[in-house]
Write a structure and sequence with these properties.
This protein is α/β, with parallel strands linked by helices. It is built from eight helices and five strands; from the N terminus they run ααβαβααβαβαβα.
Length: about 190
Protein backbone atom coordinates (compact mmCIF):
# COMPACT_ATOMS: atom_id res chain seq x y z
CA UNK A 1 0.00 0.00 0.00
CA UNK A 2 1.02 3.61 -0.47
CA UNK A 3 1.65 6.19 2.26
CA UNK A 4 -1.56 8.03 1.42
CA UNK A 5 -3.60 4.81 1.57
CA UNK A 6 -2.09 3.97 4.97
CA UNK A 7 -2.91 7.47 6.24
CA UNK A 8 -6.49 7.27 4.99
CA UNK A 9 -7.18 3.84 6.47
CA UNK A 10 -5.38 4.61 9.76
CA UNK A 11 -7.37 7.82 10.15
CA UNK A 12 -10.63 6.09 9.30
CA UNK A 13 -9.83 3.38 11.84
CA UNK A 14 -9.22 5.96 14.57
CA UNK A 15 -12.45 7.77 13.76
CA UNK A 16 -14.37 4.49 13.94
CA UNK A 17 -12.82 3.78 17.35
CA UNK A 18 -13.87 7.26 18.43
CA UNK A 19 -17.46 6.81 17.30
CA UNK A 20 -17.67 3.41 18.97
CA UNK A 21 -16.44 4.91 22.26
CA UNK A 22 -19.21 7.54 22.54
CA UNK A 23 -21.50 6.76 25.47
CA UNK A 24 -24.99 6.83 23.92
CA UNK A 25 -26.68 7.69 27.20
CA UNK A 26 -24.39 10.66 27.81
CA UNK A 27 -24.89 11.77 24.20
CA UNK A 28 -28.67 11.76 24.69
CA UNK A 29 -28.41 13.53 28.06
CA UNK A 30 -26.17 16.24 26.56
CA UNK A 31 -28.52 16.73 23.61
CA UNK A 32 -31.50 16.92 25.98
CA UNK A 33 -29.69 19.49 28.14
CA UNK A 34 -29.17 21.70 25.09
CA UNK A 35 -32.75 21.16 23.89
CA UNK A 36 -34.21 21.87 27.33
CA UNK A 37 -32.11 25.01 27.84
CA UNK A 38 -33.19 26.31 24.45
CA UNK A 39 -36.87 25.66 25.22
CA UNK A 40 -36.42 27.72 28.41
CA UNK A 41 -34.72 30.57 26.44
CA UNK A 42 -31.37 29.89 28.10
CA UNK A 43 -28.03 30.49 26.40
CA UNK A 44 -25.56 27.88 25.20
CA UNK A 45 -21.91 28.96 25.42
CA UNK A 46 -19.11 27.17 23.58
CA UNK A 47 -15.34 27.48 23.86
CA UNK A 48 -12.12 25.78 22.87
CA UNK A 49 -8.59 26.56 21.74
CA UNK A 50 -7.09 26.15 18.28
CA UNK A 51 -9.14 23.78 16.13
CA UNK A 52 -11.52 23.36 19.08
CA UNK A 53 -12.19 27.12 18.94
CA UNK A 54 -13.17 26.65 15.30
CA UNK A 55 -15.56 23.86 16.32
CA UNK A 56 -16.98 26.15 19.03
CA UNK A 57 -17.64 28.85 16.42
CA UNK A 58 -19.08 26.31 13.98
CA UNK A 59 -21.39 25.13 16.79
CA UNK A 60 -22.71 28.66 17.29
CA UNK A 61 -23.23 29.11 13.54
CA UNK A 62 -24.96 25.80 12.87
CA UNK A 63 -27.27 25.87 15.88
CA UNK A 64 -28.30 29.51 15.49
CA UNK A 65 -29.01 29.01 11.78
CA UNK A 66 -29.62 25.29 11.31
CA UNK A 67 -31.62 24.38 14.43
CA UNK A 68 -33.75 27.50 14.62
CA UNK A 69 -37.45 27.23 13.84
CA UNK A 70 -39.16 30.49 14.71
CA UNK A 71 -42.58 29.14 13.65
CA UNK A 72 -42.34 26.61 16.48
CA UNK A 73 -40.71 29.11 18.84
CA UNK A 74 -37.47 27.15 18.92
CA UNK A 75 -34.61 29.61 18.75
CA UNK A 76 -31.25 28.39 20.08
CA UNK A 77 -29.14 31.20 21.47
CA UNK A 78 -25.58 29.94 21.05
CA UNK A 79 -22.54 32.11 21.72
CA UNK A 80 -18.97 31.10 21.01
CA UNK A 81 -16.69 32.59 23.65
CA UNK A 82 -13.89 31.97 21.14
CA UNK A 83 -15.32 34.47 18.63
CA UNK A 84 -14.70 37.90 20.15
CA UNK A 85 -11.02 38.37 19.32
CA UNK A 86 -10.71 41.94 20.72
CA UNK A 87 -12.19 40.84 24.06
CA UNK A 88 -10.07 37.68 24.14
CA UNK A 89 -6.86 39.64 23.55
CA UNK A 90 -7.80 42.26 26.15
CA UNK A 91 -8.44 39.59 28.79
CA UNK A 92 -5.28 37.70 27.81
CA UNK A 93 -3.13 40.81 27.90
CA UNK A 94 -4.54 42.47 31.01
CA UNK A 95 -5.41 39.44 33.14
CA UNK A 96 -4.35 36.01 31.87
CA UNK A 97 -5.11 33.74 28.94
CA UNK A 98 -6.29 31.17 31.49
CA UNK A 99 -9.21 33.53 32.26
CA UNK A 100 -10.19 34.25 28.64
CA UNK A 101 -13.43 32.19 28.78
CA UNK A 102 -14.17 32.22 32.52
CA UNK A 103 -14.08 36.03 32.56
CA UNK A 104 -16.76 36.10 29.88
CA UNK A 105 -18.92 33.49 31.62
CA UNK A 106 -18.70 35.37 34.91
CA UNK A 107 -20.21 38.40 33.21
CA UNK A 108 -22.60 36.88 30.67
CA UNK A 109 -23.88 33.52 31.89
CA UNK A 110 -26.82 32.79 34.12
CA UNK A 111 -28.08 29.83 36.12
CA UNK A 112 -29.58 27.21 33.80
CA UNK A 113 -27.39 28.15 30.84
CA UNK A 114 -25.17 25.48 29.26
CA UNK A 115 -21.42 25.57 28.73
CA UNK A 116 -19.87 23.33 26.07
CA UNK A 117 -16.16 22.78 26.57
CA UNK A 118 -14.23 21.45 23.60
CA UNK A 119 -10.70 20.27 24.40
CA UNK A 120 -9.03 17.18 23.00
CA UNK A 121 -6.74 16.85 26.03
CA UNK A 122 -9.39 18.09 28.44
CA UNK A 123 -6.65 19.97 30.26
CA UNK A 124 -6.47 23.37 28.55
CA UNK A 125 -6.27 25.78 31.50
CA UNK A 126 -8.61 28.31 29.89
CA UNK A 127 -11.28 25.68 29.30
CA UNK A 128 -10.83 24.01 32.70
CA UNK A 129 -11.22 27.39 34.39
CA UNK A 130 -14.36 28.09 32.34
CA UNK A 131 -15.86 24.74 33.45
CA UNK A 132 -15.18 25.65 37.07
CA UNK A 133 -16.89 29.03 36.70
CA UNK A 134 -19.81 27.49 34.82
CA UNK A 135 -20.37 25.03 37.66
CA UNK A 136 -20.17 27.79 40.26
CA UNK A 137 -22.87 29.71 38.35
CA UNK A 138 -25.27 26.74 38.25
CA UNK A 139 -24.78 26.00 34.58
CA UNK A 140 -24.87 22.54 32.99
CA UNK A 141 -21.47 21.54 31.57
CA UNK A 142 -20.88 19.39 28.50
CA UNK A 143 -17.26 18.42 27.79
CA UNK A 144 -16.01 17.03 24.49
CA UNK A 145 -12.68 15.33 25.17
CA UNK A 146 -10.19 12.82 23.81
CA UNK A 147 -7.04 11.13 25.15
CA UNK A 148 -7.81 10.36 28.84
CA UNK A 149 -10.36 13.19 29.08
CA UNK A 150 -8.34 15.30 31.46
CA UNK A 151 -9.83 17.63 34.01
CA UNK A 152 -12.84 18.77 31.96
CA UNK A 153 -14.08 15.20 31.66
CA UNK A 154 -14.07 14.99 35.46
CA UNK A 155 -15.84 18.33 35.89
CA UNK A 156 -18.61 17.88 33.31
CA UNK A 157 -22.16 16.78 33.94
CA UNK A 158 -22.11 15.27 30.46
CA UNK A 159 -18.61 14.09 29.45
CA UNK A 160 -18.74 13.24 25.75
CA UNK A 161 -15.45 11.41 25.72
CA UNK A 162 -13.84 10.11 22.53
CA UNK A 163 -11.33 7.36 23.27
CA UNK A 164 -8.64 8.44 20.79
CA UNK A 165 -5.04 9.45 21.51
CA UNK A 166 -4.61 11.69 18.45
CA UNK A 167 -5.66 15.30 17.99
CA UNK A 168 -6.74 15.15 14.34
CA UNK A 169 -9.10 12.19 14.67
CA UNK A 170 -10.44 13.44 18.02
CA UNK A 171 -11.26 16.81 16.46
CA UNK A 172 -13.01 15.12 13.54
CA UNK A 173 -15.23 13.13 15.91
CA UNK A 174 -15.94 16.24 18.02
CA UNK A 175 -17.09 18.01 14.87
CA UNK A 176 -19.35 15.05 14.07
CA UNK A 177 -20.79 15.05 17.62
CA UNK A 178 -21.74 18.69 17.13
CA UNK A 179 -23.58 17.77 13.92
CA UNK A 180 -25.19 14.65 15.42
CA UNK A 181 -26.61 16.61 18.39
CA UNK A 182 -28.01 19.14 15.89
CA UNK A 183 -29.73 16.28 14.05
CA UNK A 184 -31.10 14.97 17.34
CA UNK A 185 -32.49 18.41 18.21
CA UNK A 186 -34.02 18.90 14.77
CA UNK A 187 -35.65 15.46 15.01
CA UNK A 188 -37.42 16.51 18.22
Amino acid sequence: MSIETDIIFDHLGLINIGFASIDHDVFKEAAEAIFSATKRSKTIYTAGNGASAAIAQHWACDYTKGCSNLKDGFNPRVISLSANIPLMTAISNDISYDEVYSYQLERLADIGDVFISISSSGNSPSVVRACEVALSKGMRVIALTGFDGGRTRQLAHYPLHVDIDEYEATEDVHQAIMHMIAKYIRAK
